[in-house]
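Record format v2
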Amino acid sequence: MAEYEIRETLLKIDGVSLTLGGKLILRDVHAEVKNVHRQGMSQGQVVGLLGPSGVGKTRLFRILAGLDSPDSGQVLLGAEGKPVARGSVGVVAQDYPLFAHRTVLSNLMVAAGQVGKKESDCRALLERFGLTGHEKKYPAQLSGGQRQRVSIAQQLLCSDHLLLMDEPFSGLDLVALGTVIQFLGEIAATDELKTFVIVTHDIEAAIEVCDTLWLLGRDRDEKNEIIPGARVQKVYDLMALGLAWRDGITDDPAYLALLREIRAIFPLL
Amino acid sequence: MKRSPADVFLPNRFVPPRAMLLVIGFQVAVALLIWILSPFKVLPKPLEVFSALGALVRDSEFTQAVGSSFTVFFKALGLIVGISLGLSYLTVVPFFRPLVNAITKGRFLSLVGFSVLFTLILQDGAKVKLAMLVLGGVTFLLTSTADVVAQIPRAQFDHARTLRMNEWQVVWEVVVRGTLSQMFDSIRQNAAVLWALIPVVEVMFRVEGGLGQLLDVERKYLHLDRVYSIQFVFVSIGLLQDWGIGLLRGMLCPHADLTKERQSG
């Protein structure tokens, strides 16, 4: 098992609750991401927020992104506990939004301009993401994978360390899924403080790419009826289970056991 | 997919430009044939119309009329576009939404009732003509441009916000720049309507001349060859300005047609 050390808090969800149209959506959500340090390595954090459709993942995603405010509680960033503000967190939505009227390079430049970065930073990122030669293309001329990479690059340019991704595995075939999983792992390894929170309902992909899993769901009362308002019911530490930072874990008995366990819980969330 | 000549009669098939030119040539030839063989004696034949057109373009009155109609058109279009786009963009501020909504309802008003009011206020036929065109034009163009702004999905605003843009930067990037191609589409349609309205107001307010007045005079004297030659000029200029707006759209918004199966015509 890889040696690692848990250090300072990078992201803290502190008692977040949200009611919409008189309906409780999120109830006292608590969760925390800490800096995982591996000796002699740069290792970011990849957290998976798992939950069935309609449970409130998107609402929590918007609160984490600073796009919506909760009714109570707060989201704090960094060791100093700075409240989240929109723009301080990178957000890659499901359809990989880009400015359709701007070219690839121009899309990156507009993000870079917001934080005083230069064209050379954008070109370096394009090279790292394998997008050299696509600078003058418009988003409509890109493939789904290219569009996803440009969207991530755009957000990385102007966010600090935290990047939220909404359903990045949605609609991908097996080959594309493998590429995305590898790509996310590579980006996460570029900076020790880099933290990805991936919102998904794809259990297999989440176990493969993440080092921590949060299960968002609603509790049930003694009559087995759903109590309104989702919360993080369970946290899985994939590092402790020996499933993090490894390739080819899908044949590992620990992987299969975890997959079975989550699949059994999922319909009850 | 294998191509065949039958593709021109099948839905959603790609037809090469050269084949399309053949189709257009065929349709123009059929239209001319119908015109030439038309049994209606009052309808001048193509040669009569084109010979009248030759005489018309040599007439200094005609050049003056074209210039006058063109000037009115561009003045009105400039004002209509400026007012409509300005008001549409202002709808990002909730205070202006009821006002814009009320103005768009003006398209159900009859302009005739306003001619007297404008004449009394402005006391100048040319200004009244322009005011009538602008009033009519703004109510229609504003309806579509304000709708373009209203239809922008929330995700596009959120995307700009996640890039640390303040709300005015969001407006510039998403509302102004992001909708430019759609605004051009609306302007293009409304410019065609405006051009078609020019002869109507030129006949209503007989100041400054113009193609409309020229058309009306020839119509009264039943010079049908000249009437149709003026109509031909009118259509040609209309198509030219439509092409010009399309060209400008293509230059400023090269991304706009990338995902379309068919290119805009």
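The longest strand of chain A covers residues 5-20.
The interface with chain B takes residues 65, 67, 86-91, 93, 95, 97-101, 110-111, 114-115, 138-141, 154-155, 158-159 of chain A (CB under 8 Å).
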